[in-house]
């Protein structure tokens, strides 16, 4: 069944006039109408979120967020543009897709953080700097790196141990290139100050 057929079948299981009436009452901030609408359509809308997210907790979060949006935007609904169920399904779908993207970004952030932390746990003799540091300097560099705040330290490690360009780092941490430059400059300054002592 295609997406259009799915939504069409969904529409047929609900009375559009009833849903439109509930939305009109919700637009007037009728909480009982919101409760009635929730009981009527929540299982179907939650199913839409579940198809996209495949996670019960995330689907429930999206459903709650969508009903909050329905509460605030019911006065924007126009029957001439779409059927009530189609409109509500679109709200859920967009929220679910946003949640999916956000979860993907968070997962990538966690993976990058874990990579950096693993690097910090490694003996620095394994780094590309192994030819230019002796045992004493290794310990000092390691100690000084740990003294930096996480953002500066991670930027330095990605640039000088992993060999990422500033642009690559910006893409990975989803920050502007200028921000990465500032972090690198600040981090290198503090690192040099620490190593000078």
Number of strands: 0
Question: Overall mean pLDDT score?
Answer: 78
Give the overall shape. Answer: elongated
CATH C-level class of the largest domain? Mainly Alpha
Q: What is the CATH topology assignment of the largest domain?
A: Rna Polymerase Sigma Factor, Chain: A
Q: Main β-sheet, in a few words?
A: none
Distance between the termini: 69 Å
The CATH H-level superfamily of the largest domain is: RNA polymerase sigma factor, region 2, helix turn helix motif
Number of H/I helices? 9
Helix content: over 70%
- β-strand amount: under 5%
Poorly predicted runs are: 5-11, 123-134
String of helices and strands? HHHHHHHHH
How many structural domains are formed by the residues? Answer: 2
Structural class: mainly alpha
Give the second-level CATH assignment, the architecture of the largest domain.
Answer: Orthogonal Bundle
Gyration radius over CA: 26 Å
């Amino acid at each position: 069944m295609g997406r259009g057929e799915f939504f069409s079948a969904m529409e047929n299981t609900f009375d559009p006039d009833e849903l439109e009436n509930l939305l009109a009452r919700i637009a007037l901030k009728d909480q009982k109408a919101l409760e009635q609408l929730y009981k009527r359509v929540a299982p179907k809308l939650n199913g839409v979120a579940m198809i996209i997210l495949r996670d019960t907790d995330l689907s429930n979060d999206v459903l709650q967020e969508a009903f909050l949006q329905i509460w605030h935007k019911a006065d924007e609904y126009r029957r001439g543009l779409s059927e009530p169920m189609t409109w509500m399904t679109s709200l859920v779908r967009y929220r679910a897709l946003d949640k999916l993207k956000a979860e993907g970004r968070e997962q990538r952030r966690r993976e990058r953080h874990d990579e950096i932390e693993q690097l910090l746990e490694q003996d620095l003799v394994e780094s590309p700097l192994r030819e230019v540091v002796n045992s004493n300097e290794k310990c000092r560099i390691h100690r000084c790196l740990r003294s930096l705040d996480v953002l500066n330290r991670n930027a330095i490690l990605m640039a000088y141990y992993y060999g990422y360009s500033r642009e690559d780092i910006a893409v990975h941490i989803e920050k502007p290139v200028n921000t990465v430059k500032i972090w690198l400059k600040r981090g290198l300054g503090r690192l040099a100050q620490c190593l000078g002592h």
